[in-house]
Amino acid sequence: MSIKSFIDYLELEKKYSPNTIKAYENDIRSFSEYNKNEFDQSSINKVDYSQLRSWIVKLVESKISNRSINRKISSLKTYYKFLLKIEKIKKSPLDNHKALKTKKIIQLPFSENEVISALDINNFQNSFEGKRDRLIIEMLYSTGIRRIELTGLKIKDIDFSSKRIKVLGKRNKERFIPMLKSTISLIKEYMDYRNELNRIQNKDFLFLTSKGEKIYENLVYRITNKYFDYVSTKVKKSPHILRHSFATHLLNNGADLNAVKDLLGHSSLAATQVYTNRSIEEIKKVYSNTHPRNK
């Protein structure tokens, strides 16, 4: 009952995305199953830290990364905080737990030239899928929206008169993002092809598959990876890297940090500051152009 109540709490009160909720539920049920098999205990509400530590050791021995293990523990921490909130327990068994050490992952953004090359019209077929794929790359880079936000875009969210889109972000928080002329132009081209599909099952949504169904997140990932494979040797080529590139390029060209925060839909400035790590060449250029002794 408590797990079901917790899931309802994440969905209705915290307004987490379906994918996030599913991840929390999988982590909690995974430990619940382990606890039942190893300790013959049906409820995880009454466990102590030794039982949790036993599960962590098993995960480490299974060669799961420390980062993934920390995420699973974070799910359980949130669950036990919920139990404290509804007064089902008096103390969390994870109160004194310390996260496992992880290597810092540096996510390199695409260069401006890589993005320009990926968007080259010659990379795309003159077809529905070609027009759609090019618009997806353009939209991710020109607006910085998340992959799940892009798949949820509806035609009514596009305001051509004010040249902006309405985005439904995390926890159902709305924000408005300006559109470039190039983006508007590509949307109109795409819509001409979209309107010619034989069958459209999800008419409200902007991005569709060739079968007329709402586009899904894995397809957006594959599209991004496909076109950046042509122009980039970077290991990771994902929609998130395009979002990272959007923020980095704006900041490199003098954008205000608070403005970038609002465009990205971050709730705090701390989340945006990860994008302020400019390349050494950019730092050298700013230093050279601004230091009074270099005049």
Number of separate helices = 13
CATH top level assignment of the largest domain = Mainly Alpha
- What portion of residues is helical? 40-55%
CATH architecture of the largest domain: Orthogonal Bundle
Overall mean pLDDT score?
90
Q: Give me the secondary-structure category.
A: mainly alpha
Query: What topology, given as strand order, has the largest sheet?
Result: 1-2-3
CATH fold label of the largest domain: hpI Integrase, Chain A
Radius of gyration: 23 Å
Short summary:
Helices cover 54% and strands 4% of the residues. With 295 residues, it is mainly α. The chain has two domains: 84 residues, Orthogonal Bundle (DNA polymerase, domain 1); 176 residues, Orthogonal Bundle (hpI Integrase, Chain A), CATH 1.10.443.10.
Describe the structure.
- It is a single chain.
- The protein folds into two domains: 2-85, DNA polymerase, domain 1 (Orthogonal Bundle), CATH 1.10.150; 112-287, Orthogonal Bundle (hpI Integrase, Chain A), CATH 1.10.443.10.
- The chain has 295 residues and is mostly helical.
- A hairpin with a 5-residue loop joins strand 2 and strand 3.
- Helix 2 (18-39) crosses helix 4 and helix 6 (128-143) crosses helix 10.
- It has helices at 2-13, 18-39, 49-61, 66-85, 112-118, 128-143, 147-151, 181-194, 217-229, 239-252, 257-264, 269-272, 280-290; strands at residues 158-159, 164-168, 174-178.
- Strands 1-2-3 form a three-stranded antiparallel β-sheet, with no helix packed on it.
- The model has no long low-confidence stretch (mean pLDDT 90).
Relevant terms:
about 300 residues; mainly alpha; DNA polymerase, domain 1; hpI Integrase, Chain A; 2 domains; three-stranded antiparallel β-sheet; 3 strands; about 55% helix; about 5% strand
